[in-house]
Amino acid sequence: MMMENRNSVAIRYCTQCRWMLRAAWMGQELLTTFEGELAELVLQPGTGGVFEIKANDKLVWSRKDRGRFPEITELKQLIRDEIAPGKHLGHSDRKSEG
Amino acid sequence: MMMENRNSVAIRYCTQCRWMLRAAWMGQELLTTFEGELAELVLQPGTGGVFEIKANDKLVWSRKDRGRFPEITELKQLIRDEIAPGKHLGHSDRKSEG
Q1: H or E element in which residue B22 lies
Q2: How far apart are CA B10 and CA B13, in angstroms?
Q3: Å between A77 CA and nearest CA of chain B
Q4: How many other C-beta atoms can be found within 10 angstroms of the C-beta atom of residue A9?
Q5: Half-sphere exposure of B67 (CA within 13 A, CB side)
Q6: Residue of B7, B34, B40 to mutate for A, most A C-beta atoms under 10 A
Q7: What pairing do the DSSP bridges indicate for beta strands B8-14 and A8-14?
Q8: What is the ipTM of this complex?
Q9: Closest-CA residue of chain B to A10
Q10: What is the mean pLDDT of residues A13-35?
Q11: Does the beta-carbon distance from A24 to B27 stay under 8 Å?
Q12: 3-state secondary structure of B94
């Protein structure tokens, strides 16, 4: 039986920049990869060029700090490290293993 | 300037039924229609055939109660009634006006 969990990932995106589709795509990737490990995926409209991703309220990505969007593979690694540290990500782990 | 708001819509969907794409699509429709009126759209994986939509913690749709999924137009009307009662929905209002 699946363990209950309270893990939450939130993606805040700038509506003016039209980043909703990107945020929703990344959200669906995370819901698929971390099925059973995520209790919720939160999409939060924002303004001013914001693109921030939090795992259980810890900021794991800020576009302003990093100067770019995350690759989906590195995003999965960052989320994995917060919510499911023992999980192997298959293809998504290869880049850092190579 | 846009008013701050704390409106939240949550969609709980059954992963076993493979309803994530449907939930995410509906979520994006709501984020688009209610841009500036929604603070967050929450996707919550569930099991056992659940498909429930809450607006500010009020249950506005349960597939088990209704026996079907909502039409996107009626869903927008239900959400509108909770979070932005004065808002006109354009095409999405026509069905009930006709």
Answers
A1: helix B20-33
A2: 10
A3: 20
A4: 25
A5: 0
A6: B40
A7: unpaired
A8: 0.92
A9: B42
A10: 98
A11: yes
A12: helix
**Which residue type sits at A39?**
A
Contact indicator for A69, A22 with CB cutoff of 8 Å: yes
Beta-carbon pairs below 8 A across chains A and B: 53
Res A98: pLDDT: 38
Would you say the C-alpha torsion A30, A33, A35, A37 has a positive or negative sign?
negative
Tell me the pLDDT tens digit for each residue of A44-55. 999 999 999 999
For the question of whether the overall pTM of this predicted structure is more than 0.90, the answer is yes
Q: Which class for A89: exposed (0-12), middle (13-18), buried (19 or more C-beta within 10 A)? A: middle
* Nearest alpha carbon to residue A33 among A2, A79, A95, A71: A79
B10 burial type by CB count under 10 A (0-12 exposed, 13-18 middle, 19+ buried): buried
Report the amino acid identity of residue A76. Answer: K
| Residue type for position A32 | T
The answer to whether the Cβ–Cβ distance between B28 and A21 falls below 8 Å is yes
**Mean pLDDT score, A9-21:** 98
Q: Which residue has the tokens 């996107």?
A: B72
Take residue A75 and report the two structure tokens written for it: 């995003």
Judge whether residue A97 has pLDDT over 90. no
**Cα(A40)–Cα(B12) distance, integer angstroms:** 9
The pLDDT assigned to A95 comes to 58
